[in-house]
Amino acid sequence: AAKAAGRDRVHLFSAGLRDAARWRLEVATRLRDGALDELVVHYQPIVRLDTGAVEGVEALVRWQHPERGLLPPDNFLSVAEETGQLIPMTRWLLRETCRNAAQWAHMGLPLRIAVNISARHFATETLVRDVRTALRESELQPEQLTLELTETSLAEDPARAEEQLSVLRSFGVRVAIDDFGTGWSSLAQLLALPIGTLKIDRSLLTAAERVSGPDAGDVLAAIVALTRTLGIRSVAEGVETAEHLRLVRQAGCDLAQGWLLGQPMSADQLPSWVRAVQEAGG
Ligand code: C2E
Ligand code: CA
Ligand code: CA
Ligand code: CA
Fold first, then answer.
1. Which atom number of ligand 1 is nearest to the Cα of residue 72?
2. What's the ipTM?
3. Among residues 8, 24, 65, 250, which one has the fewest Cβ atoms lying within 10 Å of its Cβ?
4. Cα 237 to ligand 1 centre (Å)
C-alpha cells in the first residue's frame, strides 16, 4: 500500500509539473499574442492613519482570462518576466494608471498612484522614458506618481540605483521601498538612498501579532521610529483585522493598506468608494 501511495504521489507530482509547463506555455504565447487587452488594473486604497483619509492607491495588475476568470498576478508575472513581457506590460500599466489618476483629479479626487516596478525594468534605460511618456500623455502631476521598488532591486547595485533614483526624483516622481523586511539587504545602505516611503511587508505584521505580551509590535515601532528620524514615511501592508490596525497605529505608522481598509477594486468602482469614505468623515 505504501508503495502504491508513493507511486500515486509521483504521478500527481508529474501531472502537476505537466500542468505547470502547459500553463507557462499558455501564458507566454497568449501574452505575446496580445492578451495585453485582457489585462486589467485594480486599485487598492492606501489610507492615512491620523485622519483616515484615502491618500492614494496601489495599482495591482490582474488578467481577465476568458475561461479561467480574474487571475491574480502571481499566476502569470514570473512567466511574463522570463519571456520579456513584463516590461511592455508595465509600460501599458503606467499609461493606463496615469490616465485613470488624471481623470480622478479632474473629478476632484487628486489621489496618488503607486505602480510596482520590477528589478529588471528598474535596471534599464527605458524606465525613465516609460515614466515620462505616461506622465506627458496623461498630463498627470509627477508628484502624484510613486514607483514601488523592492529591497532587492535597490540593493543589487546601490550606486546605479542611486543614480537612477536621482533622475526620477529630478522630475518629481516619488519612490517607495516595497516589501520591506523580506530581503536581507543592508538597512543603512537602503535608507541612505533618496526614497520617500518605506512599505513594511505584511510578514512583519503577522510576526508582531504572533509575539504575545508587551513586546508585540516593538519591531514595527522600532522600524517606524527609524523612518521618522530619516524623514521617510511608512506604510504598513496587509492590515486585515482591527488588531492589526491597533498594532500599526501604536507603532506610529503614517499610512496603511489592507483588506480591512479597502480591497483592490476596478477604476470604475474607486471614485464612489473614495467619496463614501470622505462622507463618512475619513
Ligand atoms: P505587493 O506589491 O506586496 O502588493 C500587495 C499584495 O497584497 C496584493 O496582492 C494585494 O491584493 C494583497 N493584499 C492587500 N491587502 C491585503 C491584506 O490585508 N491581506 C493579504 N493577505 N493580502 C493583501 P496581488 O494583487 O495578488 O499582488 C501580489 C504581488 O504581485 C504584489 O505584491 C506585487 O509584488 C506583484 N504585482 C502586482 N501587480 C504588479 C505589477 O503591475 N507589476 C509588478 N512588477 N508586480 C506586480
Ligand atoms: Ca507593491
Ligand atoms: Ca508590498
Ligand atoms: Ca508584500
1. 26
2. 0.95
3. 8
4. 10
